[in-house]
Design a protein that fits this description.
The structure holds 2 protein chains of 2 kinds. By secondary structure, chain A is an alpha+beta fold. Chain A has 9 helices and 21 strands. In chain A, helix 2 packs across helix 3, helix 2 runs parallel beside helix 4 and helix 3 crosses helix 4. The chains are: A alpha+beta, B mainly alpha.
């Protein structure tokens, strides 16, 4: 187990820069999830830590050692790949033993470690099977087993669940979380799935176009995103981002006239915001709700999704934007109906025109994090 | 299949709804069969005319004392086959052909695999080298052998220069009973290494990069990656190349005819050369056909070996 530090790491493929100076601290034993859209450089960052790519600049430190020039096999890391990357002609047991044999671990010790890992992952019956005789979920378990037996300083996961079906993904996610609790190992996990990020992480790193947008605990990112990108990436369904202009700044918060008509107030620190400046109001679907006439804005219901535990409503504004909101009372709204929608100022986010967030007031944030 | 289904319906009169479907599908299958036959006909015509008929005709001829020109057509049963194995010249050509195959096939596999491993990189330089190494396969046997006759010439050949440069007397490779066969092997490997190399390159490109990444993380040395990842992953390709090469090298003819004429002292005489001379110089077509069928049998066994090995893997 070791900490990982990434200091100003840059990476270019030819003339194309992929990472523009990434700084990241991962404490020993932490589960860090790197999340971002396709092509944001998250897998490249993981491969740099693994040593499968060479950094164009900056330093990668595992434990106390700068490992930039250390080959992957010497970094004492283990990696679980998206396509499992099991050796096709070897049995599960041979796959797990391969790395240990290369490091000249004694035979008895190899047998002992494989047996222990197989027990942890409940894969004893698969040990003599070859990868082609296993299902996707079983292969991924064996791949995780191959990582565990190495007893590495750091575990790296590169989108390990994306090839599994939805049900299996949830199950494996829980197992990976349990595994982390059990092993208490440092883990770095790359995914584009924000649900995986939110459920697994001690710390989430949001990456966009090769730059770190924000690093923080899952709920911190959810309730206090630093910009519209993070706000939009974390949370499902996505946050509603509505453009508008500042109408007034007062003790009750910043009142915003929405472009689509209507007014809403956000409890944020105004930080020099002028009346009339362009802003973007951020409203989480669960913060929006049907309101009394004269409050909030009008929207015409397009689709209602009744999921049993919640009811999601998708509605269009006069300006054509679509908003999603949760109808907690499961009222009898129907498609085509025009409703008045509002939000509690304490639950509203506000962003400047350039996308950077205005800090929510301490009171609003405390309430959000408490909930 | 449709017959079984129809029988099932007759035994079960309750299955009324299924009947029209089955009838339609039976008619549909007849239509499919006709369409398939229509597509196959051009190939079948060629197959029957130029493969099946000559093959059966060849077996028939091999059972006769049959002269190429003239009217001798005496049925002699298996006598040609018994004679064949008492004919010292044919036995010598079998020995030579097998020896040549035994020398050439392993050399071809090792060289083509080595080249494929060295050239399996995604740069322009390697692409150019791949083309260069494949170019020799495009040459006709005449061109390839003439090049090597010149290279191996004890007077002015490239090898002769090399020998003299280190103060040695040049060897007349093609005239030496000991060196003629190895010289043919070198020529053949140089001439036809391109195709197996391409097969190996295709095989190498099928191996996912992630497996090599995993092996690097597993601290596998380059040698371990080759022996534990690459070679096992190429097993099918290796079997294919070995069998194709056995079949190709058993048919050795052009190289010996042009480079050594089967000599010196029949030391490079191949089976095909003996078959050719028996049939077309000595006009003994029946005897030549029997020899050809023996060669066919050997190559057939090699093909079956490949089928057997590939089925074992599945």
């Amino acid at each position: 187990m070791a900490s990982v530090e990434i200091r100003g790491v840059r990476k270019s493929f030819g003339a194309v820069p992929v990472l523009h100076g990434v700084d990241l601290n991962i404490r020993q034993g932490d589960f860090t999830v790197i999340v971002g859209p396709s092509g944001c450089g998250k897998s490249t960052l993981l491969r740099l830590v693994a040593g499968l790519e060479d950094a164009s600049g900056g330093e990668i430190v595992i434990g106390d050692d700068v490992v930039n020039d250390v080959p992957p096999g010497g970094r004492d890391i283990a990696m679980v790949f998206q396509n499992y990357a099991l050796y096709p002609h070897m049995t599960a047991a041979e796959n797990m033993a391969f790395g240990l044999e290369n490091s000249r671990v004694p035979r008895d010790e190899i047998r002992r470690r494989i047996a222990a890992a197989a027990e942890t992952l409940r894969i004893q019956p698969l040990m003599q099977r070859k990868p082609r005789e296993m299902s996707g979920g079983q292969r991924q378990r064996v791949a995780i087993g191959r990582a565990i037996v190495r007893n590495p300083k750091v575990f790296l996961f590169d989108e390990p669940l994306s090839n599994l079906d939805a049900g299996l993904r949830v199950q494996m996610r829980i197992e990976i979380a349990k595994l982390h609790q059990q092993l208490k190992a440092t883990m770095i996990y790359v995914t584009h799935d924000q649900v995986e990020a939110m459920t697994l992480a001690d710390q989430i790193v949001v990456l966009n176009e090769g730059r770190v947008e924000q690093i923080g605990r899952p709920l911190e990112l959810y309730h206090a995103p630093l910009n519209t990108f993070v706000a939009g990436f974390i949370g499902s369904p996505k946050i509603n981002l509505l453009p508008g202009r500042v109408r007034s700044v007062g003790p009750d918060g910043v009142a915003v006239d929405l472009q689509a008509g209507g007014t809403l107030t956000a409890q944020v620190v105004p930080d020099g915001l002028d009346v009339g400046s362009e802003v973007i109001l951020g409203l989480r679907p669960e913060s929006l709700h049907p309101a009394a006439d004269g409050q909030g804005f009008k929207a015409r219901i397009d689709v209602i999704e009744r999921l049993g535990n919640e009811t999601m409503v998708y509605a269009s504004l006069p300006s054509g934007e679509i908003v999603a909101f949760e109808d907690r009372k499961a009222s009898r709204m129907v498609s085509g109906e025009t409703v008045q929608v509002g939000a509690d100022p304490m639950e509203c986010h506000l962003f400047r025109k350039d996308g950077t967030a205005l800090q929510r007031t301490g009171q609003a944030l405390a309430r959000a994090l408490e909930a | 299949m449709s017959a079984t289904q129809s029988a099932g319906v007759m035994e079960n009169p309750g299955a009324v709804a299924a009947r029209p479907t089955i009838r339609r599908s039976a008619r549909g299958k007849r239509g499919d069969g006709l369409a398939a036959l229509a597509f196959l006909t051009p190939y079948l015509v060629f197959f029957v005319l130029f493969l099946a008929y000559p093959f059966v005709w060849g077996i028939w001829i091999s059972l006769h004392d049959w002269e190429l020109v003239g009217k001798v057509r005496n049925y002699i049963g298996l006598a040609n086959y018994w004679d064949m194995f008492e004919d010292p010249l044919f036995l010598l050509s079998i020995r030579n052909t097998f020896l040549f195959t035994l020398m050439t096939v392993p050399a071809m596999v090792v060289v083509s695999l080595g080249l494929a491993l060295a050239l399996n990189r995604d740069t322009r330089f390697h692409a150019v080298l791949r083309v260069i190494f494949f170019t020799s396969s495009v040459f006709s046997v005449t061109v390839a052998t003439l090049i090597w006759i010149m290279v191996l010439s004890p007077d002015r050949g490239l090898v002769a220069h090399l020998f003299r440069s280190v103060g040695m007397q040049p060897i007349a490779f093609l005239g030496s009973p000991d060196w003629a066969m190895p010289a043919l092997t070198v020529t053949t490997v140089w001439w036809s290494v391109g195709f197996p190399m391409i097969l190996f390159l295709a095989g190498l490109q099928q191996i996912p990069q992630e497996i090599y990444d995993a092996a690097r993380i597993d601290n596998a040395s380059a040698w371990r990656r080759l022996t534990c990842i690459t070679l096992p992953s190429l097993r099918r390709t290796i079997v294919l190349v070995v069998v194709l090469q056995i079949i190709a090298q058993l048919q050795l003819f052009g190289q010996t005819l042009i480079m050594t004429g089967g000599g010196p002292a029949d030391r490079t005489r191949s089976m095909v050369q003996t078959i050719y001379e028996t049939g077309f110089t000595e006009w003994q077509l029946g005897y030549a056909s029997a020899m050809s069928l023996f060669l066919f049998g050997v190559m057939f066994l090699a093909s079956m070996l490949q089928l057997y090995i590939s089925r074992q893997e599945d």
